[in-house]
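Please go through the sequence line and token line underneath and see whether the fold suits the sequence. See right below:
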Amino acid sequence: MAGIMDKRVCQPSKQPSSPPPAGLSHTGDEVKEHYDSESHKKRSDGRDMTPVTNYVHSVKKDTGGTTCDCIIDGVLVGDIIRFESGAKGRCIYHEGSQCTVFLTFDNSNHRIEENEKVENMGKTCIIAEAELKEIVDKIPHGQRGVVSLGPPRQRPTKANRSTQPTTQQANRPSSNDDESISEMMRQPETRPISQDQLVAETKGIYAGLVMVETKCIEVDNAQSSNTDANSKLDDVQWQALIALHRTLLHEHHDFFLASQHPSASPALRRLASKYAMPARMWRHGIHSFLELLRHRLPASREHMLTFLILAYQMMALLYETVTAYEDTWIECLGDISRYRMAIEDDDIQIREQWTGVGRRWYSKASDKSPTTGRLYHHLAILARPNALQQLYYYNKSLCVPIPFSSARESIMTLFDPVLNNNTARLAPVDAAFVRAHGILFSGKSRDQLQESTDSFIDSLDGHIGRITKRWLESGYYIAIALSCSLLGYGVESNVLMRAMSKKPEETDVAMDGNTIAEATPDETFKLALDFATRTISRVLYRWGDTNTLPFVHSILVFMNHMTQYPAAISHLEEAYPWKLTSIMLNTLLLSCEPGYEIRGHFRLPEKDQLPHPLPEDFAMRGLLYAEDYFPNDWFSNDKIDEDEKYFELPSVTEVRKDRILSLGYNIASSGNWLLWNRETRQFEVPEKYDVKISLDSRQDGNIEI
């Protein structure tokens, strides 16, 4: 579970909502349809036998808990509902007097019946001190510690609840109407809430929240520090712990509903960030308990499954209702999905389903925060067993503006098996490529590097020819991995990283115009450069193969960025195959429509068209060397589904050609590495790079001079 986050950065955002989780909430239309579709039970004389208000209409149970559809006069979201049977629940949705109540406390001893009477307790702490003590008493002695419980929140009385006039009386039918006709409210009752009331509600909720949070921290710490192998919790004790953490989650839910209320003042809205409530909810309400459950596997598996469903549903509810912290909820949903995937050993189909769910949440999060390396690290874990994709995500997590340093440890779970020649599940060409990067990254098995690079390059040409279009995706994964290796996998001491850390105008230039190198490349950089340029040369030799264009595009984005830093390009220019690049560019020109006009800038869509990035655009987004490549709002088209991002449309090839030619033209504008001949309309190279190209040299990736 390496890398499961325990901190959350809370940033306001707005995102279209997804369907609410089953059993937790309903839309207004669904509730209305539910009530309209079932007529109330009638007595033999035709009169309604159910109470007019304050009763249970229907009960639904599922793996996430129990929900009841009720008729309650004057109900508000967040109100605590007490049932005649003794159970308690919380209103999570209402439309007028029709509401959905989620049973948030341990109701295993209570049986909810239709038409059962209910009482609205208002917005109070759902768990009182005595009830909390009852839960904690089920936990074994010697493992709980001692903590003084604060007083429970005072329950509001009718006097301090809203006294705004209602429309119910005015809307009732005339007394002359037939008594058999049920009374009907024509307009839902609305009760405004003042700032003082909101502040009082929030303070009261927070007091109860802190009480439960303190107990959760105490119990989790006590259980985690207990190393006695013979000390095992029974089902009742696990259920007590789940009930305790479930209560904390619902207290957080109430706090967010109150503090983020539409009528709340800016100061009240800021409280959640000021007191780090999203982070506290994740850490003390979910993460610590999940880690406790994980360390007690396999005995705790069923209880962990129960809590994961509960936590996922709560986060999905917050994602729907508290959009100010949407970024946090999205990442939490990804983390919970990853836990669920990790403990599924019995059913591979269920495991793959949860892997897909986690990948979608993390992808959504990375779209909103493309420079955050932590998210790519999580995606790398979910990319198994695709080794190339794993390598790409691990590299990206280290080569973005906000790198995730823990990935340097996690990436070894990918490298260690291939370094030990445990590559049964990998294609030989992929195994050789990953092994070469493992050696460059870790410094281990340096004596195997030459063999690995030779094996990969010798197999590459035939491999591309065999898998054809399937290399479109592999191509940009490989190109990005090579680029990241040249950046030293994000190490600050790398010569290119040091050059990029300074503005281009800050680079020293000698009297003869040559750049003064500020750092000397180490041996690892030289080996990475040799591997990269040999691979690039081998791919460029297939200059008529459109399946190599994503690779070429990704490499030229990297090289174009390096040309902006004289100190950086000085370490690359002598080794890079400029001549082969010019041949490839001229080949692309021949395939263009007559009258094609080459440009040195990004070709934007028409005003009435939305941008449609290439698959490799999404892959490069956020990387250090791609920051200045894409126009503003290039990724603003939110109508592109996750599955569509990497789908190759027939029109993509022409767009990709145009991008590659534009990059070549832009590099040629300096006249240092490529040249553009306006008369012949061809790409050329300066004399020192004008080497002789022989098809025989394609066998070893080198070029004759």
About this structure: The two ends are 52 Å apart (CA to CA). Residues 388 and 477 are 7 Å apart (CA to CA). Residues 1-51, 141-177, 508-513, 700-705 have pLDDT under 50 and may be disordered.
